[in-house]
Amino acid sequence: MKSTMDTACPGARPDAMIRAEDALGAFMLDGIPLARAMAISVGAHDGESLTLHAPLGPNINDKGCAFGGSLASVMTLAGWGLVKLAADARSIACEIYVQDTLVRYLAPVWEDFHATAHLTHGDTLAGFFEALTTRGKGRVRVRSVVPLADGSAAATLDARFVALAKR
Amino acid sequence: MKSTMDTACPGARPDAMIRAEDALGAFMLDGIPLARAMAISVGAHDGESLTLHAPLGPNINDKGCAFGGSLASVMTLAGWGLVKLAADARSIACEIYVQDTLVRYLAPVWEDFHATAHLTHGDTLAGFFEALTTRGKGRVRVRSVVPLADGSAAATLDARFVALAKR
Predict the structure, then answer these.
(1) Each residue of B110-140: pLDDT tens digit?
(2) Contacts of A28 in chain B (CB under 8 A)
(3) Domain A14-165, CATH 3.10.129.10 — does that match?
(4) Which tens digit of pLDDT belongs to each residue from A114-125?
(5) Which of A128, A160, B39, B85 could cross-link A138 (Cys pair, CB 3.0–4.6 Å)?
(6) Number of Cβ atoms within 10 Å of the Cβ of B26
């Protein structure tokens, strides 16, 4: 399911936003072989959160549930994608790097899964992009969660990303 | 390069140790599709540390350097493999899970890389296996590092693993 970014970009056409999300998916699958191996797809996006989906099959571990490296990778990419879509929507050219991540594995995942990323409470895209455009460097914190069917968290990620403006 | 576990298992034959490491590699590649996608191979092992290797090619990101998810996955698997080899050498049947990880991405990696895992200072395999065999559950902390050619760290992982005895 894909949604528009009406809130973040009130003047933008919905079809342009859908293309941005499709472009993100293609960018990840083309540029990151492991994203292709994990069969990641882009799901819901409303400007403030981004969901990535992954099937269990290519992401299992020796126990038959989701491999921790896959959970961490999908949660990291959800955070990275959230920041990238926000930069692209503002036509701000930058490279976005993950700086550090704290991952908690809380429960095994026995089915296809998804990770949803939000900015960490207290951080704003406005503050991030102001630092990026005025000082050439911005930092932002993201929390990603892989939920179970009952809504509880199977895994969480708290990450810091840094973006460097392209000259 | 593979080494024996003489220190940890003074009575063990070197060829049996080599088979244990080969078995670990086959176990990971057979049981974890993402390990296969990352083309991970088992390197040096002396009972107190384990090194896993990965080529850059299947592990690049959109910038052409190593994908953070690959670095985190290889560092996590190095820690998991270190604990698994130690359990296998003692014929202790258990399932080993990663509980949480803190990953710091310090510098980009532009070439084939490896991750070496050690127990965190202060933790011992003796204490871990005593808890596992007497209480059915053991916890151990591991630090993994991906070094650059100059010896500095490109990425570090501090992880906690929990092992549950199989009944």
Answers:
(1) 999 999 999 999 999 999 999 999 999 999 9
(2) 62
(3) yes
(4) 999 999 999 999
(5) A128
(6) 11
**Are A21 and A4 within 8 A, CB to CB?**
no
Chain A residues with CB-CB distance to B59 below 8 A: 33-34
ipTM of the shown complex: 0.88
Rounded CA-CA distance A101/B100 in Å is 10
The single-letter code of the amino acid at B135 is R
Q: What is the dihedral of CA B61, B157, A99, A72, to 10 degrees?
A: 60
- Name which of B98, B104, B158, B162 to mutate to probe chain A: the one with the most chain A Cβ atoms within 10 A of its Cβ: B98
pTM for the full predicted model: 0.89
Q: Do B34 and A38 touch (CB under 8 A)?
A: yes
Is pLDDT above 80 for A3?
no
Choose, out of A38, A60, A98, the residue to mutate when testing the contact with B (most B CBs < 10 Å): A98
Chain-chain contact of A58 with B31 (C-beta, under 8 angstroms): no
- What was the pLDDT predicted at B48? 94
For residue A153, the distance in angstroms to the closest alpha carbon of chain B comes to 14
